[in-house]
Amino acid sequence: MRTHTSRLTAVLALAAAAAVPLPAAAASAESSTAGDYPVNWDTVSAITTGTPLDLAPPGANRQDCRPSAEHPHPVVLVHGLLSNQRSTWQALAPTLANEGYCVYTFTYGKTWYSGTIGGVGDLNESAKQMKAFVDKVQQWSGADKVDVVGHSEGGNLPRLYIKQEGGASEVNSYVSLAGVNMGPPSLSGIITVAKQIPGAMEVIGHASPAIGQLTDPAYFESLNKPTATYPGIDYTAIATTHDEAVTPYELALLPQAPNVRNITIQTQCPNDPVGHIGLTYDKTAVTDVLNALDPAHPRPVPCDSGFPL
């Protein structure tokens, strides 16, 4: 049985291999009709096919989409560290579009050396990029507020946008999947080891300012004080006990409050082996997202025993 660290290393290797530059490709026109977008549940193929292109996943970024009465808030999906919109959201974006949501994705935090990979740059600058993108979504859709769903670093970034960039008045619901919420994760010991090497963290911080911030206790102290959550926003934080990056996994949860719901996948499905990277392709987690976005119409949560990444 593979360890958490070997699982994470294997998938990061796949992402690196997939990041070999390819010729630019134009996004194909997609119908705005709900119910006909292909859903990819395979984490590995999503990473290997999605990382090189950085295109919107199926069903996303339809500028002609208008929110319905059933789903009045557009959904903005926010990818995680060393990822992009297409490698992260090939399951959730088309699932939401097939359910009749207006769905939007973007890639933030690119640097001059990161190619199609985002989530690398300074989080404060990425929060500004998110603000600009949400403004576009509101313009396209005509909606005053959006729902946001983020994975990993993408669970952290919307909270910075809410605090610093006016998002408190623009977000209806917030959902995180293994979000880096309450403190620096150990990243399965990788950062812990680096801290023992003189100068290593400085090198990492220069290569990726986001990693430097997400491993800095002062960043989280600033983000979470005086409050980690804001009234008027419904929060759902989803975690997995098999997380190989946000460790301990409880860091993905939020402080208890009337407008906060914390979900641990294995409380629902003890045998679900899903880890950090695979959470956006886990049918249990995706159903939890659907229920968080539409709590008035909850659906049974299936137990996914798929590939445990």
From TrEMBL:
An example Gene Ontology biological process: lipid catabolic process
The residue ranges crossing the membrane are none
Q: Which molecular-function annotation in GO is an example for this chain?
A: lipase activity
UniProtKB keywords:
Signal
Leader sequence residues: 1-26
Q: Which SUPFAM superfamilies match?
A: alpha/beta-Hydrolases
Q: Would the keyword Signal be found if you checked this record's keyword annotation? A: yes
State the residue spans of region: Disordered. Answer: 50-70
Answer whether the UniProt record assigns the keyword Signal to this protein: yes
Q: Report which superkingdom the organism of origin falls in.
A: Bacteria
Q: Name one Pfam family in it.
A: Lipase_2
Q: What is this protein called?
A: Lipase class 2
